[in-house]
Amino acid sequence: MEMLIDFPGGARVDVHFGQFTIKTDQPPQGGGDNSAPTPFATFLASIGACAGIYVLGFCKQRGIATEGMQLVQRLEVDRATGMVSKVLLDLQLPPGFPEKYKEAVVRAAEQCAVKKHFEHPPQFAINATLASI
Predict the structure, then answer these.
(1) Which of 10, 23, 74, 131 has the fewest CB atoms within 10 Å, i.e. the most exposed one?
(2) What average pLDDT does the chain have?
(3) Is residue 27 part of a domain?
(4) Taking the CA of residue 41 as centre, how many other CA atoms within 13 Å lie in the half-sphere pointing to its CB?
(5) What is the pLDDT of residues 105-131, one digit of tens each?
(6) Do the Cβ atoms of 41 and 30 come closer than 8 Å?
C-alpha cells in the first residue's frame, strides 16, 4: 500500500491513500491549530479501533448484540522516557453478554494486527530524493 503524505500548512500533515485522507495537526503549544488529532494520537487510536474490529467481527459471527459494549483504552507512560510502557484495553461487556464467550471475545481482541506489529515490529528505511520538475 502506498500512502502520500503532504503538508497543507501550519503544523498540519495529511496522509492520503485510496479514497481516504487522514488529517493531523499539533496543539497550539506545538505550533498547530489543534484542528485534528496529532499523528501520535491517531496511531494510538488505531490500537483500540483494530481490537474493536476483531471484537465486532466475533460478535457478528455469533449473533451477539454490541449495543452497550465499549472498549476503553488507557496508557501507562514511563515518566523517565515519556514513552508508552503499557496499553490497557478494557472491554466493557453489556449485561446479558453470554458468559461462555467472555474469554473468547478477549482472545478475539488480542488478534489485532496493530498489536501484532508491536510484538513483531517492522524494520524502517527512510531516504530522501529530489523531485524532478
Answers:
(1) 131
(2) 96
(3) no
(4) 11
(5) 999 999 999 999 999 999 999 999 998
(6) no
